[in-house]
Amino acid sequence: MSTECYRDPREALVRQKFFDVRPRPLQRWMWQQGLPGSAERVFWLHWQAGLQGRDWCSAIPLKTVARECALDISTVTRAYQLLSSLGLIRRQDPGRDPSRPFQQAVAITEVRLPRELIQQLDCFPNREQRRAPHLPEPAITAASQPASAEPQSSAPTANPFAAMGTLERRGMIGELTGSMSAGEKARWYEATRMSLTHMQFDPDTKLRAEQRAQVLQILSLMKPRTAAGPPPSAATARAEPSGPGRLSALELARLRRELQCLLHSTDIDESFRQVVWSVEEGALRRFTTLHAVRIALKKIREGQWTRPNRMPPQWSRALNQPGRVCRPTVTEHCTAA
Predict the structure, then answer these.
(1) What DSSP character marks residue 330?
(2) Beta-strand runs (E) in 246-335
(3) What's the pTM?
(4) Could you read off the pLDDT of 46-57 as tens digits, one per residue?
(5) Which of 91, 123, 155 is the last residue of a domain?
(6) What is the tens place of the pLDDT at every residue in 255-269?
């Protein structure tokens, strides 16, 4: 699991969550037809399932479609009728379920493209094909080959990803990993996770010589790790502080808003100062700012938060200058008129 922390939830959404594949020409054509939103939800659900199955067909129960699309069953039925009339789907009724003769089997839905859209596909611009840089083929050591290995000349020399789409790359990698043993799969996943350029094969491996060469070539195309040594453990990372982190104005505003939801109005200012000092100057400075704020909020929520021991009595920080610490000032009164 990745250890990166993204302060902006939009970054986390973009980098970590799944996306739906929606071709723009098809989506624009559906908008031009005035297709209702409920029918679009049903269509894109079957489109995604058909794309994952690589046969553009899916068998999803009617109740499941209604639950996934947040629609009523009657609305899903009307959406099927509308999509069929526009030529976007074709449903095949398989009749009764052989295992349950008193129930109807799940219909098979195939997503299709209308004829007029197919005639206009050449008018739409194509995406730029990004080709990976060509790298020389890595040499396969004798220790990584079984005794009955074929000659090295049978290994491919071109980049296997050069002229492949996303589905073709996934299919090729799935075929390679499907022929690996359990130990080889573990070493493959470890090599991809650590960005290693080589891996060891079993003496009795089921992979052919060209498949082993493809595996090593795929690993060689991965970006190597910049660090010279292995990544530090969690205990080592926490034992060595990375320096005081400074909360931005947006992070300070979010922290105050969270405290307003947890505390009374009379305790917010003091708790706010304590948390900021602990994150920037105190014991929580060894964590990232986002992680440190979450730790402090959790302790406050559970009633375990106490004032930091080494915190100055009147400590405060200016919001416009994150690195400057404001000290209490003495107010001078004017006695001369």
Answers:
(1) P
(2) 316-317, 325-326
(3) 0.39
(4) 998 888 888 888
(5) 123
(6) 888 888 888 777 788
